[in-house]
Amino acid sequence: MSQPFRFKRRSYGRLAIIFGGLFVISFATCYFIFDLIVDFIVKNNLNLKKGGIERGIYEALPFPLTYQVYIFHILNKDEVKNGAKPHFKEMGPYSFDEIDWKNNISDDEEEDTMSFNLNKEWLFRPDLSNGLTGEEIITTLHPVIVAIGLTAHFEMRQYLHVASTAIDEIFHEPKDVFWTGRAMDLISDGIEIDCSTTNPLAKIACRMIRKSGIQMIQRVDTQRMKFSFLGGFNRTVNGYWTMNRGIKNIYDAGNVVAVDGQRELTVWGKEGKCNQITGGDTLVFVPYQTIEKPMLMFVRQLCFTLQMKFVRKAIYRGIDLHVFAQEFNITATNEFSCFCRKPDRCPIQGTMDMYQCLKVPVIISQPHFYHADPSLLANIVDGLKPDQKKHEFAITLEMKTGVALKVAARVQINFPLEPVAEIEIMKNLPNMTFPWVWAEKNMFQIPDSLVNLMKYTLTVGNIFRTTLAYLTWTIFFFGTIFCTTIFILTQYTEYDILEDERVFLRTSGIVKIEQVSAINQNVVKEGNDLIKNEKRSRK
Predict the structure, then answer these.
(1) What is the tens place of the pLDDT at every residue in 294-307?
(2) pTM of this prediction exceeds 0.70
(3) What distances in angstroms separate CA 107 from CA 50, 111, 245, one per listed residue?
(4) Measured at the alpha carbon of residue 330, what is the angle toward residues 325 and 334, in degrees to the nearest 5?
(5) Which DSSP state fits 459?
(6) Is 234 exposed, middle or buried (0-12, 13-18, 19+ CB in 10 A)?
């Protein structure tokens, strides 16, 4: 007779406990403990506490941002001044390093905020400008002449005669409303505004320009000013900001609390949320972002908080990211109606009227009127071709940390051009939204050290978590099969089970006891006698 396979009955319970314990421990580690560890790391490293990693990077960004300017050069100005559709040639990029740093920093422990002056400097990079030097001669709308004429036309019609006289006196009787000159004069060196005239009406206009507070206009001396796209912002303080540090509540980290002492704007309509100051600042965003909620970003120069919606997923250097994009969708019936000047005066789809912010008739959009009403392109012969990769305003974000690994903040400045009968050089202009300049702030040159730190922290961690998840369910699957098999074998099949030095051979209802050792001979004899008696009674 072959030696029976012996399995201790109590081993079944132990194995079940072992497999069950391994499953519970793995499950807890995978789905609870791992998240707690990551949350602990995020909460302790991504707030803006003094001495923290995030705070050090935020106070003085260790790498420059890239700022690029594109100018719409007009090829047929003589036809356009008489009402024709324009032909454009895009000139750019004129690339700059944008260097941001903070000073005059103070912390409010009770409010959990930090306040600082934001400083900016732009340095021209010819090596990143595709051979452009800034010496190129371009022709475009004269920004100051157009601003004076359109402001009077739309908002101060009683001053149209003042505007007409001021344009002739300040700009020495221009032949048309266009400006031709060096590209770098328009971008940073400045277009001269000559206020040396003795004409009283021109002096009124000059006084209004000085008091306008438009940062693109710099005062040279008592008689002269200069206009440039970037010059007025370069090497200057760009606002006094107050940000939430996120020490008390990590979900508020990087959220703008106030700018220039204001916790709410007074620019837009009183109803709605248009005057709210909230969101990130293009460098830091609130962590634990979800795709259901818009990503908020406050832009001081534009006087409002962008509400960017999730549009697609992306992978950047091996890190899973989510792309949030901006669309200008302002109507009289949606939540953005407070951006309309009047209920019946909302901007065209894909644009935004900036007069209430800048006090100049300016329309912004995405470059080349991307995602805007097709009628805007219908008024242009050629030179504009919307492209998502080139023209979309988008932020690519790592959701858990709130860190933006790709930033493409793109905005185009347009003038709402109309014929102005009272001003000779503007009386025959076409009625259209006229593209002037567009600019892009991007963050594509993040050092590999910073990207790799995030990559290995998140990616390796997620790989560990995924592996642990597979292992957990593998243990559960095979443990269940193994324990179930043992249970079935011990209950319903012929199988020897050793328990307390006795062997029970299971059959269909009859248990035969075999001798195991000399010590248990009596037990075996008694058991065999019982079996024999049971057989006789059945006969």
Answers:
(1) 999 999 989 999 99
(2) yes
(3) 9, 9, 9
(4) 105
(5) I
(6) middle
Q: b or e along 191-227 (b: 16 or more beta carbons within 10 Å of the residue's beta carbon)?
A: bebebebeeebbeebbebbeeeebebbbeeeeeebbb
Looking at the DSSP bridge assignments, the partners of residue 496 are 505
Tens digit of each residue's pLDDT (9 = 90 or more) over 458-516: 655 566 656 666 666 666 666 666 666 666 655 544 444 444 444 444 444 444 444 44
Which two structure tokens, joined as six digits, stand for 291? 């795709």
Burial string for 282-306 (b: 16+ CB within 10 Å, else e) reads bebbbbebeeeebbbbbbbeebbbb
108, two tokens? 């409010």
Q: Which residues contact 214 (CB under 8 A, 6 or more apart)?
A: 232, 358, 359, 360
> Helix %, strand %, coil % for the chain, to 5?
35, 30, 35
The C-alpha R_g of the chain, in whole angstroms, comes to 37
User: In the numeric block, which tokens belong to residue 398?
Assistant: 């790592």
Domain residues of the chain, as ranges? 1-60+447-484, 63-128+239-444, 500-539
Q: Cα dist. 512→465, 506, 515 in Å?
A: 51, 7, 10
